[in-house]
């Protein structure tokens, strides 16, 4: 009913006007009709802007791990962001379990679902545990019942590190930095930071400490807390690690290496991050964008490229971060063509468009590919901006005039002044 939608908008506008919050976390979003969010989200964001809160953020809880489904709420539903259950499930599967790092490659390859005119995967709230599903300490106890407490503590640190430095906005569930474990979902994952009198909490063995939840747990000397504080300092000190483009670089089939780059588009220096989910030292050979890389974390010596590649050594259950000393060499595509145009196989709300950038083989490359489509008003409208190969756009089928026979305009920009624009037909 319109009266209900308008009433809720007025309530939340009133909260913004009177209390000036930084944003809203909205629970159980997927259980509300999509038409509600289509009207609610833009109205709330606009009101916050009018109230002088330019960085107001709204994110919703959609308890599902599939980006093709999750993204419907930021695209069709017009929410600025949601909690990234996709990253949570896959990060825990790789670093708090023994599944293939290929799961992470596939996860970030799906980021195209989130790209549209007013949202992107960079705005997603990332996490590895929460109050409903349980704590990472519990996952580790369940997945590694015979492992030492030291290994479980290190796996918690490694999983948190991945959350900090992958794309998105990291969120730590209180108590995980103190090694809380919990016994299960809901109430059993909500221990007190203050001394608890709950027997089912107090009998848990916490990671990285001899304390229990019967003690005060605001311990700044806890090893997990210490590492997360260190990660936060690195995160704040490097713009690319906060909002750089996230590029897949390498993923092993078995437990081992997942490598990725973060590149801030103005700075154009590659940060190379290599994580090791295996319990033994690993190495990987990667194409280099620079003659040398400075060590940022986890290594003492710089990396020097040989024959266009670097060999990266990573300790067991550890990670390293390097920063290139040279900017990425610009590449100019000789042409752009539609390689795929079809109804999306995982979400029929979208038309999936993939491009072939002729002559772009260097990795990592740095391209901004912008897709516009002809809407029902006959005018071009922004569909998506993509910085990561394979270059794609997910266009809402309901928005494009003539559907798969519609017209698009693609602009490719190597961020060094070389810009090409081409009008194309989706019908192939």
Number of discrete helical segments = 11
| Structure classification | alpha+beta
Q: DSSP strand (E) fraction?
A: 25-35%
Q: Alpha-carbon distance between the termini?
A: 43 Å
Low-pLDDT segments, ≥5 res = none
What does the average pLDDT come to?
Answer: 96
Number of strands: 20
Main beta sheet, described?
6 strands, antiparallel
Estimated helix fraction: 25-40%
Envelope shape:
globular
Widest sheet: strand order? 6-7-8-13-10-11
Q: Over the alpha carbons, how many angstroms does the gyration radius reach?
A: 23 Å
Describe the structure.
Helices cover 26% and strands 27% of the residues. It is built from eleven helices and 20 strands. It has helices at residues 2-19, 34-50, 67-70, 72-75, 85-95, 102-109, 136-143, 149-165, 199-202, 223-237, 239-243; strands at 23-26, 57-60, 81-82, 125-126, 169-170, 245-251, 257-263, 269-276, 282-287, 292-297, 303-304, 309-314, 319-327, 335-343, 350-358, 368-374, 380-386, 392-396, 407-413, 419-425. The strands form six sheets. The protein has a six-stranded antiparallel β-sheet with strand order 6-7-8-13-10-11. A four-stranded antiparallel β-sheet has the order 17-16-19-20, with no helix packed on it. A three-stranded parallel β-sheet has the order 1-2-3, with no helix packed on it. Helix 5 (85-95) packs antiparallel against helix 8 (149-165) and helix 7 crosses helix 8 (149-165). The radius of gyration is 23 Å and the shape is globular. The relative contact order is 0.09. The mean pLDDT is 96.
């Amino acid at each position: 009913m319109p009266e209900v939608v308008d009433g809720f908008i007025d309530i939340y506008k009133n909260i913004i006007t009177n209390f000036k919050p930084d944003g809203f976390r909205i629970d159980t979003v997927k259980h509300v009709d999509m038409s509600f969010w289509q009207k609610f989200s833009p109205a709330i964001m606009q009101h916050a802007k009018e109230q002088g809160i330019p960085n107001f953020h709204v994110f919703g809880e959609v308890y599902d791990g599939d980006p093709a489904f999750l993204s419907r709420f930021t695209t069709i539903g017009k929410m600025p962001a949601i909690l990234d259950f996709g990253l949570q499930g896959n990060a825990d599967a790789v670093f708090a379990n023994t599944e293939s790092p290929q799961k992470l490659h596939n996860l970030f390859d799906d980021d195209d679902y989130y790209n549209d005119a007013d949202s992107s995967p960079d705005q997603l709230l990332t996490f590895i545990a929460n109050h409903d599903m349980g704590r990472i300490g519990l996952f580790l106890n369940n997945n590694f019942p015979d492992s030492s407490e030291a290994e479980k503590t290190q796996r918690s640190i490694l999983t948190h590190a991945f959350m900090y430095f992958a794309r998105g906005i990291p969120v730590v569930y209180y108590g995980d930095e103190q090694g809380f474990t919990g016994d299960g979902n809901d109430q059993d994952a909500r221990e007190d930071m203050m001394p608890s009198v709950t027997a089912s909490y107090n009998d848990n063995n916490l990671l990285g400490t001899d304390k229990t939840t019967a003690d005060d747990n605001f311990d700044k000397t806890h090893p997990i807390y210490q590492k997360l504080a260190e990660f936060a300092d690195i995160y704040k000190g490097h713009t690319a690690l906060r909002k750089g483009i996230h590029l897949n670089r390498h993923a092993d089939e078995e437990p081992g290496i997942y490598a990725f780059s973060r590149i801030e588009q103005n700075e154009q220096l590659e940060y190379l991050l290599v994580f090791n989910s295996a319990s033994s030292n690993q190495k990987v050979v990667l194409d280099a964008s620079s003659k040398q890389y400075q060590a940022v974390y986890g290594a003492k010596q710089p990396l020097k490229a040989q024959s266009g590649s670097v060999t990266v050594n990573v300790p067991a259950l550890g990670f390293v971060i390097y920063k290139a000393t040279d900017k990425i060499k610009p590449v100019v595509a000789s042409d752009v063509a539609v390689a795929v145009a079809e109804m999306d196989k995982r979400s029929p709300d979208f038309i999936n468009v993939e491009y072939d950038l002729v002559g772009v083989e260097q990795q990592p490359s740095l391209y901004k590919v912008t897709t516009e489509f002809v809407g029902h008003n006959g005018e071009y409208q922004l569909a998506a901006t993509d910085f990561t190969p394979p270059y794609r756009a997910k266009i809402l089928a309901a928005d494009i005039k003539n559907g798969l026979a519609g017209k698009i305009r693609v602009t490719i920009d190597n961020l060094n002044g070389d810009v090409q624009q081409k009008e194309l037909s989706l019908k192939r």
